[in-house]
Amino acid sequence: xxxxxxxxxxxxxxxxxxxxxxxxxxxxxxxxxxxxxxxxxxxxxxxxxxxxxxxxxxxxxxxxxxxxxxxxxxxxxxxxxxxxxxxxxxxxxxxxxxxxxxxxxxxxxxxxxxxxxxxxxxxxxxxxxxxxxxxxxxxxxxxxxxxxxxxxxxxxxxxxxxxxx
Amino acid sequence: xxxxxxxxxxxxxxxxxxxxxxxxxxxxxxxxxxxxxxxxxxxxxxxxxxxxxxxxxxxxxxxxxxxxxxxxxxxxxxxxxxxxxxxxxxxxxxxxxxxxxx
Lengths: 165, 102
Prior knowledge:
The complex is a heterodimer of chains A (165) and B (102).
Chain A: H1 3-24, H2 28-48, H3 52-77, H4 92-112, H5 126-135, H6 139-160
Helix pairs in contact in A: 1-2, 2-3
Chain B: H1 4-24, H2 28-52, H3 59-89
Helix pairs in contact in B: 1-2, 2-3
């Protein structure tokens, strides 16, 4: 087993284990912290896939932004779940079955459905290439996303503001 | 070299875990976290395809950038909605928020 394979299996097991903690943890703060580390594991996998730019974006936005936002929201709203608080609702069995069936189907499609290329194709230098694509082919979606983010920002401020009497 | 199918199976596993969480957690913020796990699973398969398929010109990376941007907007608005829910209902458990009945 090469170093790359070893790293892949380690990071994969790490991410999956932490994702399970996110979904099953009794304490929601613990779940949020597990989410941070799960994102870090995925950033490692992105580096294995030669996507350094996205690994950096993942760490900056998910780890540094979204999970911190989630933690703030948790601390602002909930009584942190102690012992005996139900964290799963009554449809947990059905949703577990649905999730496992979907997992198996997707896994079968992934292992049987694709002619796996024998060797890795050469990939262009990724950060400049992404920049070029965003400014040429994908300029319109890029602008649309900027409008979406603006609308989201204004909407979030409006929704979260206290109503004035 | 790790074969493409391994990445896709990992992505499927993460997506299934996220789906289970989104369907069965009670806390609204837990549901948001499970959805983030699902977003990440999808991103992983985008990037894996972009790396392994010979006709790829890194469109997968661009798509992943867009997914991350939309996920950020979704998280911000979702959390604002959670704050509003908490202010009105004094709870964030989605199965207790049953204003509309059927």
